[in-house]
Amino acid sequence: MTTGEPGQPRTDRSPWNWLLVLPIVLPLLTFLFNADEPRLLGFPLFYWLQLAFIIVGVTTTTIVYRMTK
């Protein structure tokens, strides 16, 4: 695979790739959502925090994509 320039090998060794660890590790920290309170619009913490994890994942993926493009 090449980067688009002939003779240049593709490299995926960018420090920005380490940012992708955040959406993997964040949901594994159970102490963040091991509670029923607070509630947001009647939904317990667990449900709206899962939506927040999705937003963090999309944001970090977008940042890494743009910085390593």
Automatic annotation (TrEMBL):
It comes from the Bacteria. The chain crosses the membrane at residues 16-33, 45-65. It holds the Pfam family DUF3311. Keywords: Membrane, Transmembrane, Transmembrane helix. This is DUF3311 domain-containing protein. It comes from Nonomuraea marmarensis.
